[in-house]
Amino acid sequence: MARPENATALVTGASKGIGAAIARALAADGWYVAVNYRSDEEGANATVKAIEEAGGKAVALHADVANGAPDELFAEAEKKLGPVLALVNNAGVTADGLAIQLDDEAWDRVIGTNLTAAFRLTRRAMRPMIKARYGRIVNVASVVGPRANAGQSNYAAAKAGLIGMTKTVAAEVARRGVTVNAVAPGFIETEMTKDVPEAVIAAIPARRVGSPDDVGAAVRFLASDDAAYVTGTTLYVDGGMSA
Length: 243
Known about the structure:
By secondary structure, the chain is α/β, with parallel strands linked by helices. Helices cover 42% and strands 16% of the residues. A seven-stranded parallel β-sheet has the order 3-2-1-4-5-6-7, with helices on both faces. Helix 4 links the parallel strand 4 and strand 5. Helix 4 runs parallel beside helix 5. The longest helix is centred in the middle third of the chain and has 29 residues. It starts with 7 loop residues before the first strand and ends in a 6-residue tail after the last strand.
Protein backbone atom coordinates (compact mmCIF):
# COMPACT_ATOMS: atom_id res chain seq x y z
CA MET A 1 0.00 0.00 0.00
CA ALA A 2 1.29 3.47 -0.89
CA ARG A 3 1.55 6.19 1.71
CA PRO A 4 -1.83 7.85 2.31
CA GLU A 5 -2.25 11.53 1.56
CA ASN A 6 -1.64 14.03 4.36
CA ALA A 7 0.42 11.48 6.26
CA THR A 8 2.46 13.02 9.04
CA ALA A 9 5.90 12.12 10.34
CA LEU A 10 6.66 12.88 13.98
CA VAL A 11 10.38 13.40 14.59
CA THR A 12 11.48 13.75 18.20
CA GLY A 13 14.42 15.93 19.13
CA ALA A 14 14.24 17.68 15.76
CA SER A 15 15.33 21.22 16.63
CA LYS A 16 18.90 20.75 15.38
CA GLY A 17 21.54 18.31 14.22
CA ILE A 18 20.46 14.85 13.14
CA GLY A 19 16.81 15.39 14.06
CA ALA A 20 16.52 18.56 12.00
CA ALA A 21 18.19 16.86 9.03
CA ILE A 22 15.75 13.95 9.30
CA ALA A 23 12.79 16.33 9.44
CA ARG A 24 13.97 18.15 6.31
CA ALA A 25 14.61 14.89 4.45
CA LEU A 26 11.15 13.52 5.22
CA ALA A 27 9.51 16.79 4.23
CA ALA A 28 11.38 16.66 0.92
CA ASP A 29 9.83 13.24 0.37
CA GLY A 30 6.31 14.57 0.84
CA TRP A 31 5.64 13.96 4.52
CA TYR A 32 4.05 16.60 6.71
CA VAL A 33 6.44 16.89 9.63
CA ALA A 34 5.80 17.43 13.34
CA VAL A 35 9.06 18.86 14.68
CA ASN A 36 9.29 17.92 18.35
CA TYR A 37 11.57 19.80 20.72
CA ARG A 38 12.17 19.91 24.49
CA SER A 39 13.95 23.24 25.08
CA ASP A 40 15.26 24.68 21.82
CA GLU A 41 12.16 26.46 20.49
CA GLU A 42 14.26 28.73 18.27
CA GLY A 43 15.93 25.75 16.63
CA ALA A 44 12.62 23.96 16.10
CA ASN A 45 11.11 27.04 14.49
CA ALA A 46 14.17 27.30 12.24
CA THR A 47 13.64 23.69 11.14
CA VAL A 48 9.99 24.42 10.38
CA LYS A 49 10.94 27.55 8.43
CA ALA A 50 13.47 25.63 6.33
CA ILE A 51 10.84 23.02 5.49
CA GLU A 52 8.22 25.61 4.58
CA GLU A 53 10.65 27.61 2.44
CA ALA A 54 11.34 24.40 0.50
CA GLY A 55 7.63 23.94 -0.13
CA GLY A 56 6.83 21.51 2.68
CA LYS A 57 4.48 21.62 5.64
CA ALA A 58 5.58 21.40 9.28
CA VAL A 59 4.80 22.54 12.81
CA ALA A 60 6.94 22.74 15.94
CA LEU A 61 5.58 20.82 18.92
CA HIS A 62 6.94 21.18 22.43
CA ALA A 63 7.13 18.10 24.65
CA ASP A 64 9.68 16.39 26.86
CA VAL A 65 9.32 12.83 25.60
CA ALA A 66 11.09 11.45 28.66
CA ASN A 67 8.27 12.61 30.92
CA GLY A 68 4.65 11.56 30.77
CA ALA A 69 2.46 9.81 28.23
CA PRO A 70 2.77 10.73 24.54
CA ASP A 71 -0.97 11.05 23.89
CA GLU A 72 -1.01 14.87 23.92
CA LEU A 73 1.94 15.10 21.52
CA PHE A 74 0.29 12.76 19.04
CA ALA A 75 -3.08 14.45 19.37
CA GLU A 76 -1.57 17.85 18.63
CA ALA A 77 0.32 16.51 15.60
CA GLU A 78 -2.83 14.84 14.28
CA LYS A 79 -4.93 17.96 14.82
CA LYS A 80 -2.51 20.36 13.14
CA LEU A 81 -1.20 18.16 10.33
CA GLY A 82 -2.81 14.75 9.86
CA PRO A 83 -2.51 11.10 10.87
CA VAL A 84 0.91 10.20 12.27
CA LEU A 85 2.01 7.32 10.07
CA ALA A 86 5.75 7.75 10.57
CA LEU A 87 7.60 8.04 13.85
CA VAL A 88 11.30 8.76 14.19
CA ASN A 89 12.60 8.26 17.72
CA ASN A 90 15.60 10.55 17.61
CA ALA A 91 15.55 12.37 20.96
CA GLY A 92 18.52 11.40 23.10
CA VAL A 93 20.88 12.50 25.84
CA THR A 94 24.26 11.44 27.16
CA ALA A 95 25.65 11.43 30.69
CA ASP A 96 29.04 9.81 30.38
CA GLY A 97 31.19 8.28 33.08
CA LEU A 98 33.02 5.08 33.87
CA ALA A 99 30.67 2.44 35.21
CA ILE A 100 32.28 2.46 38.64
CA GLN A 101 31.48 6.17 38.93
CA LEU A 102 28.13 6.34 37.17
CA ASP A 103 25.31 7.23 39.57
CA ASP A 104 21.68 6.13 39.36
CA GLU A 105 20.43 9.51 38.14
CA ALA A 106 22.76 9.46 35.12
CA TRP A 107 21.76 5.88 34.35
CA ASP A 108 18.02 6.51 34.67
CA ARG A 109 18.08 9.74 32.66
CA VAL A 110 19.86 8.20 29.69
CA ILE A 111 17.79 5.01 29.70
CA GLY A 112 14.59 6.99 30.21
CA THR A 113 15.14 9.34 27.29
CA ASN A 114 16.87 7.08 24.80
CA LEU A 115 14.97 3.84 25.36
CA THR A 116 11.88 4.09 27.56
CA ALA A 117 10.53 7.17 25.79
CA ALA A 118 11.10 5.51 22.41
CA PHE A 119 9.09 2.50 23.57
CA ARG A 120 6.19 4.62 24.83
CA LEU A 121 6.05 6.61 21.60
CA THR A 122 6.25 3.44 19.53
CA ARG A 123 3.44 1.85 21.51
CA ARG A 124 1.26 4.92 20.98
CA ALA A 125 2.07 5.10 17.26
CA MET A 126 1.34 1.49 16.39
CA ARG A 127 -2.44 1.31 16.80
CA PRO A 128 -3.36 3.93 14.16
CA MET A 129 -0.64 2.57 11.87
CA ILE A 130 -2.04 -0.94 12.15
CA LYS A 131 -5.54 0.40 11.50
CA ALA A 132 -4.29 2.20 8.37
CA ARG A 133 -2.24 -0.84 7.40
CA TYR A 134 0.61 1.52 6.75
CA GLY A 135 3.33 2.83 9.03
CA ARG A 136 7.02 3.57 9.36
CA ILE A 137 8.92 3.59 12.64
CA VAL A 138 12.62 4.44 12.61
CA ASN A 139 14.70 4.39 15.77
CA VAL A 140 17.95 6.33 15.89
CA ALA A 141 20.40 4.02 17.62
CA SER A 142 24.20 4.23 17.52
CA VAL A 143 27.28 2.21 16.69
CA VAL A 144 27.89 2.35 20.44
CA GLY A 145 25.01 -0.12 20.87
CA PRO A 146 26.77 -3.22 19.50
CA ARG A 147 30.29 -1.88 20.06
CA ALA A 148 32.09 -0.97 23.29
CA ASN A 149 32.86 2.67 24.06
CA ALA A 150 34.40 3.17 27.50
CA GLY A 151 32.52 5.66 29.64
CA GLN A 152 29.13 5.11 28.02
CA SER A 153 27.66 2.02 29.63
CA ASN A 154 24.29 3.75 30.07
CA TYR A 155 24.20 5.07 26.51
CA ALA A 156 25.37 1.75 25.06
CA ALA A 157 22.74 -0.14 27.05
CA ALA A 158 20.02 2.20 25.81
CA LYS A 159 21.07 1.99 22.16
CA ALA A 160 21.56 -1.78 22.24
CA GLY A 161 18.12 -2.05 23.81
CA LEU A 162 16.71 0.14 21.06
CA ILE A 163 18.09 -2.19 18.41
CA GLY A 164 16.63 -5.21 20.20
CA MET A 165 13.27 -3.49 20.56
CA THR A 166 13.32 -2.59 16.87
CA LYS A 167 13.71 -6.22 15.83
CA THR A 168 11.02 -7.49 18.17
CA VAL A 169 8.37 -4.89 17.35
CA ALA A 170 9.12 -5.32 13.63
CA ALA A 171 8.30 -9.02 13.87
CA GLU A 172 5.07 -8.24 15.70
CA VAL A 173 3.62 -5.84 13.12
CA ALA A 174 5.19 -6.96 9.82
CA ARG A 175 1.92 -8.46 8.55
CA ARG A 176 0.10 -5.18 9.13
CA GLY A 177 2.01 -3.03 6.64
CA VAL A 178 4.10 -1.41 9.35
CA THR A 179 7.89 -1.46 9.18
CA VAL A 180 10.19 -0.87 12.13
CA ASN A 181 13.87 -0.22 11.52
CA ALA A 182 16.85 1.49 13.11
CA VAL A 183 19.70 3.62 11.89
CA ALA A 184 22.98 3.48 13.77
CA PRO A 185 25.09 6.59 13.17
CA GLY A 186 28.78 6.62 13.87
CA PHE A 187 30.58 9.90 14.41
CA ILE A 188 28.32 12.59 12.97
CA GLU A 189 29.20 16.28 12.98
CA THR A 190 26.94 17.65 15.73
CA GLU A 191 27.35 19.44 19.03
CA MET A 192 27.70 16.07 20.75
CA THR A 193 30.70 15.09 18.61
CA LYS A 194 32.38 18.41 17.82
CA ASP A 195 35.61 17.46 19.60
CA VAL A 196 36.33 14.14 17.89
CA PRO A 197 40.10 13.54 18.14
CA GLU A 198 42.08 13.19 14.92
CA ALA A 199 43.15 9.71 16.02
CA VAL A 200 39.51 8.63 16.09
CA ILE A 201 38.84 10.07 12.64
CA ALA A 202 41.91 8.25 11.34
CA ALA A 203 40.37 4.97 12.55
CA ILE A 204 37.21 5.52 10.48
CA PRO A 205 37.60 3.79 7.10
CA ALA A 206 36.03 6.78 5.33
CA ARG A 207 38.56 9.05 7.14
CA ARG A 208 35.93 11.62 8.02
CA VAL A 209 32.95 12.18 10.26
CA GLY A 210 29.51 12.05 8.72
CA SER A 211 26.99 14.83 8.33
CA PRO A 212 23.45 14.96 9.74
CA ASP A 213 22.21 14.84 6.14
CA ASP A 214 23.86 11.41 5.74
CA VAL A 215 21.59 10.11 8.50
CA GLY A 216 18.60 12.01 7.12
CA ALA A 217 19.01 10.29 3.76
CA ALA A 218 19.03 6.86 5.42
CA VAL A 219 15.86 7.61 7.38
CA ARG A 220 14.21 9.02 4.26
CA PHE A 221 14.76 5.69 2.51
CA LEU A 222 13.49 3.60 5.42
CA ALA A 223 10.35 5.75 5.64
CA SER A 224 9.67 5.54 1.91
CA ASP A 225 7.48 3.19 -0.08
CA ASP A 226 10.68 1.79 -1.63
CA ALA A 227 11.51 0.27 1.77
CA ALA A 228 8.20 -1.56 2.20
CA TYR A 229 9.98 -4.94 2.42
CA VAL A 230 12.73 -3.71 4.74
CA THR A 231 11.91 -4.27 8.40
CA GLY A 232 13.66 -5.31 11.59
CA THR A 233 17.03 -4.19 10.31
CA THR A 234 19.66 -1.69 11.45
CA LEU A 235 21.26 0.51 8.82
CA TYR A 236 24.71 1.66 9.89
CA VAL A 237 25.67 5.18 8.85
CA ASP A 238 29.23 5.18 10.10
CA GLY A 239 31.75 5.44 7.28
CA GLY A 240 32.68 1.79 7.68
CA MET A 241 33.30 1.70 11.45
CA SER A 242 31.17 -1.40 11.90
CA ALA A 243 32.61 -3.25 8.89
